[in-house]
Amino acid sequence: MSKPALDKSSIDSLWFNGKPLHFAAWKSKLIIHLKALSEQRALEELQRKREKPLSRFEDLLESQPAMPACPPAGDKEAT
What we know:
Number of strands: 0
Largest sheet: none
Region (Disordered): 55-79
Distance between the termini: 81 Å
Number of helices: 2
Shape: flat
Helix content: 25-40%
């Protein structure tokens, strides 16, 4: 009997081997997997007649979190 082909989209294939040169490819594969999970979750919410989720699984890996603006150091509140 032949071995079944390993599904590249499965979480089992998302391990990182520790080599810095392979990190970009690993991160890309992980983001693709997280996007698929986000789409699946959005579809499930739609089928249950709920609102679309506000955040996606891959959001923090693709963008910087929103930070509140800091006031300039020279400006002080009037008292």
